[in-house]
Design a protein that fits this description.
The complex is a heterotrimer of chains A (397), B (68) and C (292). Chain A is of the alpha/beta class and 397 residues long. Chain A contains 15 helices and 15 strands. In chain A, helix 14 links the parallel strand 14 and strand 15. The model of chain B has no long low-confidence stretch (mean pLDDT 94). The chains are: A alpha/beta (397), B alpha+beta (68), C alpha/beta (292). Chains in contact: A-C, B-C.
Chain lengths: 397, 68, 292
């Protein structure tokens, strides 16, 4: 262990890239990601880190350069947010199809026009279909650990996929929490140098990349890689715990779920608030627990099914919107599909909260927990989705 | 390998040929060669019959003949 | 040795397989064959999508393609990876079509020039979006018919080599596949120069320019002789004409292509005036520094 101190999420991300020995780092600034790239610039300027740091002219170029560098055999790190992620969308489809294990932090921030500088999850969730692994982090420590793990996961020969550690702007990116920075030698032991087995651009070893391949077959391979990634994510987490003494529960974390009737399912920074409220409410005798969804891609269908059999209701907290959807937010629709095959299905309650980065308050969490427990009591759900922020909670509490 | 569909094929009259090699230089596909600096040969597996070699030939030694 | 194996050996040596999926008479494979001879085996090539892919995928050296919105930036990543691995002995060539270079990726080419990335950036200019079926690009010349300019293009061609030259990069040049020795000399110079090298090459497109494929090389040669395609290089800011042909009327060049057949005499006169003006300026600046 090198040291432990209070650290903002963005600095932790920079440490993650540094300890992982990223070799090529194409960057373009955007709030709230900027400190990630300025910390890395300082690491390099102080000669504490050796990397090709490319100051590109836009996010599309950042991802394009990442694709070029990764294809040519370098370990690549970059980070972006919000409009930047959407601007690089075209390029974001390249790494999964080409099986390039690039790591990019997606620092969540809401999208214009109906957003601002603060976070919700629509920017990263918009990328849910393009093949990136997405792991949502709750605090600085998890950001740092997840980046190191991300390279192990993405560069696993059974996976070869890009990984996006996602974390909320401001609530994680700019909030200092106690963070332990591991020793470089320990990380080196855990993470061997990058070598892609599928292709090599070096003239001496070059083999042509097959041009014509059945498209459905290639896509199925990416899908299968995601299936295999579930096991790899769990295994890497366990090994990380053995070596560094910290686990982040792989795909899905069950918190205080012994003997509960219902759970709230969360992603990202709001999880911390929900932990506190769950503790409080359990002390009051309320049978509510917490499920933290860490991996949104690959979606832990089987794991969720297994756990869901033990609850009467799941309250999915969606920090995103999907206008005109089949019902509610993006996470709730994924959960609904995962649970559809169960014979004994828990009730599915859905909430929109924290949109555009507004605070998810303890009062709101209490309200959501109450509504979920109420559904258990009534044996039915009143509305498809509950826009919590539009409620005057002063009256209902 | 797919069969190249070609309407014309280049044929050389070695009597007229001055061995300048311009046909080899300018063939877009690289399917013409001045073999040993002496004999113009064509790779009919890949020649598309565009006629650039015939057009660039300074001594009109190459003619384009309709394929049967 | 049989003829087939003789040719197979030749393709191996020239680093490009004959029998591309390009149209007959296309200048693309010709361009690559001319320049690969100089680039040699220690080269990584990036090519954009559409037409270029038809030629690039026949290249026997490390190469890959993304779409045409990825010009100069993907190669930037390759350059960085090579630097990280201490493989500066490898030449990185990034190529893009005219639409890619002048339109959708102009900002990227400009940024790579500003960063002085150590690569050879080639603009493979056939003066329109050809693979989509002949649509106007920023490098389509004034008056040319395309399917999106049925009455002829209203605006002149962007002067991309001059735009890039103003980034003060070590080497900018124009070239033509009708002058292979000149083109090869320029590639040799670019290969031996550190930093960002920009090479703007005209290639003929019989399909899009509407002429008999046999005339491919003849037509681009006419363009050079008419000074519609002046050949020059800008080295460390100094301009030098590499060919000063006796000027032919631009009409000879225009009449050789049916994309210009609707032009009126006045329009042809206007084009001649523009060509003359440009020629005079080039002759005036020949041997002088043109960067402010």
């Amino acid at each position: 262990m090198l040291f432990t101190r209070m650290m903002e999420g963005n600095e932790a991300a920079a440490w993650g890239a540094r300890l992982s020995r990223a070799e090529v780092i194409p960057v373009y600034p955007i709030t709230p990601q900027t400190e990630v790239i300025s910390h890395i610039a300082n690491f390099i300027a102080r000669e504490e880190m050796k990397a090709q740091y490319i100051k590109v002219e836009g996010e599309h170029t950042a991802m394009a350069a990442a694709v070029g560098a990764s294809t040519a055999g370098a370990r690549v790190f970059t980070a972006s947010a919000s409009q930047g992620i959407v601007f690089m969308e075209e390029a974001l489809w390249m790494p999964p199809g080409r099986r390039l294990p690039i790591v990019m932090c997606m620092v969540n921030r809401s999208l214009a026009p109906l957003g601002g500088l603060r976070p919700d999850h629509n920017d990263s969730l918009l990328q849910r279909d393009n093949g990136w692994i997405q792991l949502y982090c709750e605090n600085s420590q998890e950001v740092l650990d997840t980046i190191i793990m991300a390279y192990r996961i993405g560069e696993d020969r059974n996976v070869y996929l890009p990984v996006a550690p996602c974390y909320d702007g401001y609530f994680v990116s700019a909030t200092a929490t106690p963070t332990t920075v591991p020793d470089q030698a320990e990380v080196d032991d855990f993470l061997p140098p990058y070598k892609h087995e599928m292709y090599n651009l070096m003239p001496e070893e070059y083999e042509p990349i097959p041009f014509y391949r059945p498209i459905a077959e290639s896509r199925y391979e990416v899908q299968q890689a995601h299936e295999r990634a579930k096991r790899v994510i769990e295994e890497v987490d366990k090994e990380y715990e053995r070596r560094f003494g910290r686990s982040h529960d792989g795909l899905l974390e069950e918190y205080a779920c012994d003997d509960v009737d219902a759970v709230l399912l969360t992603m990202g920074s709001m999880t911390g608030t929900v932990r506190d409220v769950v503790d409080e409410m359990q002390a009051e005798g309320k049978r509510i627990g917490l499920l933290k969804l860490r991996a949104f891609r690959p979606f832990p269908t089987e794991e969720l099914q297994k756990l869901a059999e033990g609850y009467h209701a799941i309250g999915v907290v969606d920090r995103n919107t999907s206008y005109g959807s089949a019902g509610g937010g993006i996470v709730s629709m994924e959960v609904a599909r995962a649970l559809y095959l169960l014979e004994e299905k828990p009730l599915l309650v859905n909430f929109h909260v924290g949109l555009g980065g507004s605070d998810v308050t303890m009062r709101q969490v209490r309200y959501m927990a109450g509504k979920t427990l109420e559904a258990v009591e009534k044996g039915r759900v009143d509305s498809m989705v509950d826009w919590v922020e539009l409620k005057d909670l002063g009256e209902v509490m | 390998m797919s069969q190249i569909v070609r309407s014309f094929r280049p044929v050389v009259d070695l009597g007229k040929c001055i061995k300048c090699g311009l046909c080899q230089t300018f063939c877009p596909e690289g399917t013409v060669m001045l073999k040993g600096g002496e004999e113009v040969v064509f790779d009919y597996r890949f020649c598309k019959g565009c006629g650039v070699c015939a057009n660039e030939c300074p001594s009109d030694a190459i003619s384009m003949v309709r394929e049967a | 040795m049989g003829l087939n194996s003789l040719f197979d050996e030749y393709y191996e040596k020239s680093f490009i397989q004959g029998g591309t999926t390009c149209c007959p008479g296309c200048g693309g494979p010709l361009l690559w064959r001319i320049i690969l001879e100089i680039l040699g085996s220690k080269t990584i090539i990036y090519g954009d999508g559409p037409c270029a892919m038809c030629a690039v995928r026949n290249i026997k050296l490390p190469n890959f393609n993304l779409h045409f919105s990825f010009i100069a930036d993907t190669a930037t990543g390759v350059v960085a990876a090579l630097a990280a691995k201490g493989r500066e002995d490898i030449t990185v060539v990034s190529s893009g079509g005219d639409g890619a270079t002048a339109d959708i990726s102009l900002g990227k080419v400009s940024a790579a020039a500003e960063r002085n990335e150590n690569m050879i950036q080639i603009c493979v200019d056939n003066e329109a979006y050809m693979n989509t079926g002949i649509q106007k690009s920023g490098l389509t010349p004034y008056g040319a018919w395309t399917t999106t300019t049925p009455l002829g293009k209203e605006a002149p061609k962007k002067d991309v080599p001059m735009i890039i030259a103003q980034h003060n990069v070590p080497y900018v040049t124009t070239a033509s596949v009708a002058y292979p020795k000149d083109l090869q000399a320029k590639i040799r110079k670019a290969k031996g120069t550190e930093g960002f090298k920009y090479i703007h090459v005209v290639i003929p497109c019989p399909t899009g320019w509407r002429f008999n494929p046999a005339k491919s090389v003849e037509v681009v040669r006419l363009g050079v002789q008419a000074w519609a395609w002046p050949l020059y290089e800008i080295e460390e800011g100094f301009l030098r004409l590499t060919l000063k042909p006796r000027q032919r009327p631009v009409e000879d060049y225009l009449k050789a292509q049916n994309r210009f057949r609707h032009l009126t005499d006045e329009q042809i006169q206007y084009i001649q005036g523009e060509v003359d003006r440009k020629r005079e300026r080039l002759l005036e600046f020949d041997g002088k520094r043109i960067i402010l």
